[in-house]
């Protein structure tokens, strides 16, 4: 996915870059696999904003992506590579031998006409194939990884992400995740071979607030730019520092780098090394 830098015809377009969508082979989604999600723009049942910096954004259809890929031992043919407005990666429309269509997260390098298969036993470790971790060669990059067998993939699903399989021993597979965290996952948990598509997305410069508004994000104002009545960081003359022992949220709780993971969580024993 090449990224194109536009001409600076206005201050908002200076240093702005856009996706060329050259890897997209079909513009309209498969209608049977789309639904319209209701959007609340950060408001609760009473209409009050409970989550800041949210807005309705552009209207879009949600694609029903198959994260389980539980159609085992039936080969599917990639019909198209499509854009998904609800995720950073591309999705692939797969038609199986029984003429059922499903969307999957497209691995980087997957092309129209390629065959993919999901299995609970060993299958060739080819791009896009899915199988339990115990059958995948050590050192292979994987994505869309299950935390528990026969559930659905939850790890390494964002654009360009891939986890490295380090070892398989004692009923667990050791993975190095994109965050740098090393953790153990049951060896019967499934994963897909390859790297998530659209790795160049990190190179996009959004450029102006309007593009973020279409994505559903409203502008965020610094606390130190507010008045003391509005934020603990507010007040002072000019570019004043925070002036507190530690940064706080508008409601007085610790913020900016505070660890939020619950102590003694059940998965603590499965983490070998913390993320970077």
Automatic annotation (TrEMBL):
Ranges for region Disordered: 214-254
SUPFAM superfamilies, per database record: Nucleic acid-binding proteins, Translation proteins SH3-like domain
Signal peptide: none
Pfam families linked to this entry: Ribosomal_L2_C, Ribosomal_L2_N
One term of GO molecular function: rRNA binding
Keywords, sorted A to Z: Ribonucleoprotein, Ribosomal protein, RNA-binding, rRNA-binding
Protein family according to the UniProt entry: Belongs to the universal ribosomal protein uL2 family.
UniProt name for this protein: Large ribosomal subunit protein uL2
Gene source species: Candidatus Uhrbacteria bacterium RIFCSPLOWO2_01_FULL_47_24
Lineage: Bacteria, Candidatus Uhriibacteriota
Primary gene name: rplB
């Amino acid at each position: 996915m090449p990224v194109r830098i536009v001409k600076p015809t206005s201050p908002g377009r200076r240093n702005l870059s856009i996706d060329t969508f050259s890897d997209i082979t079909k513009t309209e989604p498969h209608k049977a696999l789309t639904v319209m999600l209701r959007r609340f723009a950060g408001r609760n049942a009473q209409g009050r904003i409970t989550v800041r910096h949210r807005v309705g954004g552009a209207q879009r259809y949600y694609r029903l992506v198959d994260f389980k890929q539980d159609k085992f031992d039936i080969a599917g043919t990639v019909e198209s590579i499509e854009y998904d407005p609800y995720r950073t990666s591309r999705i692939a429309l797969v038609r199986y031998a029984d003429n059922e269509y499903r969307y999957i997260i497209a691995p980087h390098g997957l092309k129209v006409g390629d065959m993919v298969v999901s299995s609970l036993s060993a299958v060739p470790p080819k791009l896009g194939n899915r199988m339990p971790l115990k059958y995948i060669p050590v050192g292979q990059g994987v994505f869309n990884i299950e935390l528990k067998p026969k559930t659905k993939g939850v790890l390494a699903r964002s654009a360009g992400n891939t986890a490295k399989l380090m070892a398989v021993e004692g009923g667990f597979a050791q993975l190095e995740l994109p965050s740098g965290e090393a953790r153990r996952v049951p060896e019967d948990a499934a994963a897909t071979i390859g790297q998530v598509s659209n790795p160049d997305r990190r190179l996009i410069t959004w450029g102006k607030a309007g593009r973020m508004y279409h994505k559903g994000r409203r502008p965020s104002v610094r606390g130190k730019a507010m008045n003391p009545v509005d934020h603990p960081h507010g007040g002072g003359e000019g570019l004043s520092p925070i002036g507190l022992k530690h940064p706080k949220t508008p409601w007085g709780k610790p913020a900016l780098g505070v660890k939020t993971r619950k102590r003694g969580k059940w998965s603590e024993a499965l983490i070998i090394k913390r993320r970077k």
